[in-house]
Inverse folding.
């Protein structure tokens, strides 16, 4: 135990796991949170036995304190982690269906679903959203956890599937909830972007209560309202330009003749009334509002037995835009109504329309358990948890084109939900110098796609040519003669007559889930693990873990891990690990289906995503998904030179059978279009309604193997002087992912290039925090290295960027403080995109870039502690 510099406030870091370790489960404290800065940070994750200091952990772990979290001006935990952990990256995707509201993130270059998320050491349930591109990520929604509820956050940057189970290929993030028995915190924050938009208001509160003489209840609440931003320009493309006064206006474009002063006025009015912007298709963050509640409780029943429970409820809503439908595009075509007259959706939307997409998210969970000791050597933790996440969609400002003039303008396309129930037993047996940890778990999970509103998916009469039977062999039928007699301009001999027009099926932008694609996907699994760790000598700590998991849909797998730490000298330590991983595709990845508008070739087109094991994807050559497997290697050096602490870690993650969406396969009903026509016939044969309106298809596959290599460097240095105390921190991550097998069967050349080059390989965060009397100042620099993107034969290199954050805090009293700050002080933006696929449709910046493109943001924050 000589490596552990213990203090009674360590309990605040151990959270729900503290009672597993009787030697460390000391009495609780109400000491100020700032005193944690004087205690060596302890890592609970990384070893299933006794926790270790970060400097002596056999694997790299970041421990973020309350003060670290409060020092970041974001309400979304995704943004907090991105700001503080360089190897954690996050992008904003404003026109990407559900990803607009639940954003995909990566740790060490691996998607979110390869990072296990824990709360108080217990697995957090997944969100209902399956990302429709890339790896089809379905991970927990970190935005459902209020920052004010946290006592600490641990980020394990190493594969840990043998210790914690499937999903822990890239690492583990453990959120430790507060355990205060009294006192609390209230904060109010207001801010907006330099552009004058994106106004954000956040209220957060935490209050601790004593539960009898030996327990606590800590209640945390957060309310946030964030307005949208717009960082685009007016829609002006070669095929259609809204504003003829723009420099790029092409008078010879196909639809230029429709841009009249009347149209321009209508389009501008539509833009203002729907988007609060002067552009018909805004690019930026969506409107969002959220209510987040977390309750954490515990009670010591006796010296050897404790009860704990924690629960959450979150309700949030966001809305964003889809692609602008310009007049007379494939959606807005003339059709002949039942009376023989001509009708066009322009009669509803004279300036074209931009669908508005809303997601309402409901998330709740409950975990409870008991833990204690059966003897001086054996400790146990028996727990059960339930988690549920649901996202209900609404689509407005659109139509179901196949319904013609009978179409509504607002639809409910359906609801997605993910439900999990788990029971688990964890045990620790103390063998003097060694610790044996072992346990079992059972997990049942269900992913459900609920049918949408009938009008959102129905194929109306105009889904086929001549729905009213006006023509036969280029000549009018009796019905056709009747409407002609009543004044119709019907001309059956003209193949371009509106009577032959076929319209798209379903609510345009996001067709609803039909009964054929509304289904529940369930599975269960169980696991058994063992972990032994301890000091081999005074200077050598070693750990070995093994885990057996069995899935009802994928069979069984055994994974292992070996790790060690060697104290080479008083200042220098060496550490390393090797381990294997196993990740079973989620029920959501196996069952999700989606039709949405994307830009596979630089222009908007309806693309259908279908389950790999379903009839549609199988008809296109797909194979059922199988598990991903991995091998992780790490080697690192730690150094402790008094006030200077340094860690340097190299890692290599070899991932086999990686799940990824295949490049979009073109679809066309034109018999001369080759493979695209074959794909159309396959969709028809599989019974896909409205196949004529789908321009592309894709599906998830175990597409290729990858090798991810990188280095993490972290250094901290503290200075104390007459003019105050200063803490300097520097973190750098280098990360590069390359293909380890030939992906050409699944990805086209552009997708292959972007996969390996589309994100910065270098990322750094550097900060200086200085405190003097009643003042505290913080300066933070975030660095993003260069990265490339390709379109056809054109490659664009995006330059490196540095963002500077500045915050000053004045402590009015010991319990009341006022802060003023600026994110991105110099209002930096990434390079504008020059490539057609990334600059289409009013977009200026690459919208899925991990480099923020919202510009500067200023804020003020009032914090009261009591």
């Amino acid at each position: 135990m000589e490596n552990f510099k213990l203090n009674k406030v360590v309990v605040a870091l151990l959270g729900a796991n503290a009672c597993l370790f009787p030697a460390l489960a000391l009495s609780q404290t109400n000491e100020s949170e700032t005193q944690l800065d004087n205690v060596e940070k302890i890592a609970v994750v990384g070893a299933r036995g006794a926790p270790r200091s970060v400097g002596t952990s056999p694997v790299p772990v970041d421990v973020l304190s309350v003060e670290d979290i409060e020092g970041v001006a974001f309400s979304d935990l995704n943004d907090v982690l991105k700001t503080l952990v360089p190897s954690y990256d996050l992008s904003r995707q404003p026109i990407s269906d559900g990803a607009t509201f639940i954003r995909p993130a990566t740790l060490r270059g691996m998607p979110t679903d390869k990072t296990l998320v824990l709360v108080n050491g217990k697995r957090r349930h997944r969100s209902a959203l399956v990302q429709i591109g890339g790896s089809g990520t379905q991970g927990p929604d970190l935005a459902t956890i209020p920052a004010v509820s946290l006592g600490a956050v641990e980020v394990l940057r190493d594969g840990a599937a043998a210790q914690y189970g499937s999903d822990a290929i890239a690492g583990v993030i453990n959120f430790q909830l507060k355990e205060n028995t009294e006192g609390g915190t209230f904060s109010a924050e207001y801010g907006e972007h330099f552009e004058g938009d994106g106004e954000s208001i956040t209220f957060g509160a935490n209050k601790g209560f004593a539960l009898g003489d030996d327990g606590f209840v800590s209640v945390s609440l957060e309310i946030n309202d964030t307005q949208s931003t717009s960082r685009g320009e007016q829609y002006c493309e070669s095929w259609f330009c809204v504003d003829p006064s723009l420099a790029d206006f092409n008078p010879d474009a196909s639809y230029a003749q429709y841009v009249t002063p009347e149209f321009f006025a209508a389009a501008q009015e539509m833009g203002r009334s729907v988007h609060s912007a002067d552009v018909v298709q805004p690019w930026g963050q969506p409107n969002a509002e959220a209510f987040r509640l977390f309750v954490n409780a515990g009670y010591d029943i006796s010296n050897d037995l404790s009860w704990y429970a924690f629960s959450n409820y979150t309700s949030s809503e966001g809305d964003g835009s889809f692609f602008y439908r310009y007049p007379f595009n494939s959606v807005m075509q003339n059709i002949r109504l039942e009376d023989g007259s001509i009708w066009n959706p322009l009669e509803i939307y004279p300036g074209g329309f931009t669908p508005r997409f809303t997601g309402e998210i409901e998330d709740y969970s409950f975990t409870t358990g008991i833990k204690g000791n059966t003897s001086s050597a054996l400790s146990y933790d028996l727990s059960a948890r339930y988690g549920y996440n649901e996202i209900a969609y609404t689509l407005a400002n659109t139509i179901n084109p196949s319904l013609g003039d009978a179409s509504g303008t607002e639809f409910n396309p359906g609801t997605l939900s993910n439900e999990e129930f788990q029971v688990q037993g964890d045990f620790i047996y103390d063998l003097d110098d060694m610790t044996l940890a072992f346990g079992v778990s059972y997990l049942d999970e269900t992913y459900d796609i609920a049918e949408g509103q009938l009008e959102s998916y129905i194929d109306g009469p105009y889904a086929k040519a001549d729905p009213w039977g006006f023509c036969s062999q280029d000549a009018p039928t009796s019905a056709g003669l009747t409407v002609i007699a009543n004044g119709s301009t019907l001309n059956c001999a003209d193949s371009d007559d509106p009577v032959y027009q076929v319209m798209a099926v379903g609510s345009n932008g996001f067709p609803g889930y039909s009964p054929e694609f509304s289904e529940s996907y369930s599975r269960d699994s169980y696991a058994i693990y063992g972990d032994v760790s301890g000091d081999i000598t005074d200077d050598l700590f070693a750990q070995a873990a093994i885990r057996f998991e069995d899935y009802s849909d994928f069979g069984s797998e055994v994974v292992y891990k070996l790790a060690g730490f060697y104290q080479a000298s008083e200042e220098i330590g060496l550490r390393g690990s090797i381990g294997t991983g196993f990740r079973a595709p989620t029920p959501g990845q196996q069952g999700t289906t989606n039709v949405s508008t994307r830009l596979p070739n630089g222009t908007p087109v309806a693309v259908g995503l279908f389950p790999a094991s379903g009839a549609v994807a199988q008809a296109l050559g797909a194979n059922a998904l199988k598990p991903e497997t991995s091998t992780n290697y790490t080697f690192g050096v730690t150094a402790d030179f008094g006030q200077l602490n340094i860690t340097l870690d190299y890692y290599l993650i070899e991932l086999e059978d990686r799940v990824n969406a295949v490049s979009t396969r073109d679809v066309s009903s034109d018999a001369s279009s080759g493979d695209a026509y074959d794909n159309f016939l396959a969709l028809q044969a599989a019974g896909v309604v409205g196949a004529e309106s789908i321009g592309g298809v894709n599906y998830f596959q175990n597409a290729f193997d990858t090798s991810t290599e990188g280095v993490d460097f972290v250094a901290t240095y503290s200075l104390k002087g007459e003019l105050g105390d200063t803490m300097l921190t520097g973190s750098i991550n280098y990360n590069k992912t390359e293909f380890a097998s030939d992906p050409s069967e699944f990805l086209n050349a552009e997708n292959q290039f972007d996969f390996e080059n589309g994100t910065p390989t270098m990322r750094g965060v550097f900060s200086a925090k200085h405190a003097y009397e009643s003042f505290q100042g913080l300066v933070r620099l975030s660095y993003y290295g260069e990265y490339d993107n390709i379109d056809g034969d054109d490659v664009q290199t995006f330059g490196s960027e540095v963002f500077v954050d500045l915050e000053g805090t004045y402590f009015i009293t010991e319990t009341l403080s006022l802060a003023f700050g600026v994110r991105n002080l110099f209002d930096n933006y990434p390079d504008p995109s020059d490539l057609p696929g990334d600059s289409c449709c009013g977009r200026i910046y690459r919208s899925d870039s991990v480099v923020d493109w919202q510009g500067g943001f200023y804020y003020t924050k009032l914090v009261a502690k009591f």
User: Anything to note?
Assistant: The CA atoms of residues 326 and 352 lie 5 Å apart. Residues 10-220+281-321+355-461+505-865 form a domain with the Maltoporin; Chain A fold (CATH 2.40.170.20). The longest helix spans residues 261-275.
